[in-house]
Amino acid sequence: MKPTSHTVTGELLDRAVLVSLITQKQKKNEDLAEQSLQELVQLAETAGVEVLETMTQNKESADSKWFIGKGKVEELRLRLEALDANTAIFDQELSGAQVRNLEASLDVKIIDRTQLILDIFAQRAKTREGIIQVELAQLSYLLPRLSGQGKNLSRLGGGIGTRGPGESKLETDRRHIRGRIDELKAQLHEVVKHRTLHRERRKKAGVYQVALVGYTNAGKSTLLKQLTDADVFIENQLFATLDPTSRSMELPSGKEIVITDTVGFIQNLPHDLVASFRATLEEANEADLILHVVDSSSEMREEQMRVVAQVLQELGAHKQEQLTVFNKIDLCSQQELELLSTEGAFLKISAYSEEDLGRLRDAIQDKLMGETKRFRIPAEKGDLISLVYRIGDVLDNEMDGEEMLFQVLVNKDDYEKSGYLLAAYDQDAALQEQSGEEGENQ
């Protein structure tokens, strides 16, 4: 067969109409519904689908049988035929029965938002851990829907919805799939143990950990590459990188830290995915500092920030020390920059500006290490001099008569534990006290 515009090397391409249901509840925030549909377009294109048209249906609630209602299904069928489409992608999650009914009526492949995201993850996973997590999420999603997956699994050409575990595994009985899920969970448990050991070793060695989190396509991987010269895949796509990447970075003080890039978040991130990727996302839980990277140029940045905060809350990482990094300021107007949220600790940067990266390194150092303190200690106080070296990094030291002068970048935790014993020798505190006394005398 000679390939047409609809085939690549004999394989049928996915040509899709995208469908979104806007219920009465969602109508209160139409901007959010529109953003979700635009995200679906990006997700479909990321999965290699040719998007032909989008369609919305306003309805009080979802139809239990047809999801969008029988009349709208007929309208969709006519559009699919007119556009020579072979796939319908829905922006919401469908039940097995809805998939079965829509497939029988429309005679095309039916994919929902969750399955589309899982499919992209199946394409992106490269490490053993990533592949295990994706297959676990896909099987957990498909198990209760097997009765509705008939034609999807046997439709010619493969494409979206069939990547990952593959047809042979999915067409077997539920007992086999449950056994496979148990097997994958056991494998993942071993991976988690291995990752935990690595984290404990880093902690014992006093290595600080920083986690990059943020909405997908906010520029986390670019930032990691610019800060550490990491060899990571960067593309203007949703979920361009999936597997977590850890690289070392040197702070201005010379101390080395580890930065980890985590998987990007997205609106309505499938629960099966959050559960399966918990081991990866928990890097944020163990981090000494979370850098929340935000795409400043996105019109929906406030909503995207809310989604990230919600996922961090689910993971129990919301109490960690955080620094919000408003990235891509080079794509913003002055007015847009002024509208950026200024709550909590934040920094406005472009990942391609060396000056901005320098400010970010300084901010990370300040957050992790605390402030720089100066101590004047009598030379005979050997125990206190030893303590100085334990509470942080000594940047400079010199003899001044019978005393030693130290400039120290203090570690906040260590200083709180025992550094208070040096309070009487804190030069800056002494100067402030002297300045205060002089002010009172005047």
Give an overview of the whole structure:
By secondary structure, the chain is α/β, with parallel strands linked by helices. The protein has 18 helices and 15 strands. It folds into 3 domains: 12-174, Rossmann fold, CATH 3.40.50; 207-368, 3-Layer(aba) Sandwich (Rossmann fold); 370-441, Alpha-Beta Plaits (2-Layer Sandwich). Helix 1 (30-46) runs parallel beside helix 4 (113-124). It is elongated and about 90 Å long.
Short descriptors:
single chain; 442 residues; alpha/beta; Rossmann fold; Alpha-Beta Plaits; 6-stranded mixed β-sheet; 4-stranded parallel β-sheet; 18 helices; 15 strands; 45% helix; elongated; metal-binding; GTPase HflX; G_HFLX_dom; GTPase_HflX; magnesium
User: How many strands in all?
Assistant: 15
Broad CATH class of the largest domain: Alpha Beta
**Most strands sheet:** 6 strands, mixed
The N- to C-terminal Cα distance equals 97 Å
Radius of gyration: 27 Å
CATH homologous superfamily identity of the largest domain: GTPase HflX, N-terminal domain
Fraction of residues in helix: 40-55%
- CATH topology of the largest domain: the name is Rossmann fold
Strand content: 15-25%
Which structural class do you get from the secondary structure elements? alpha/beta
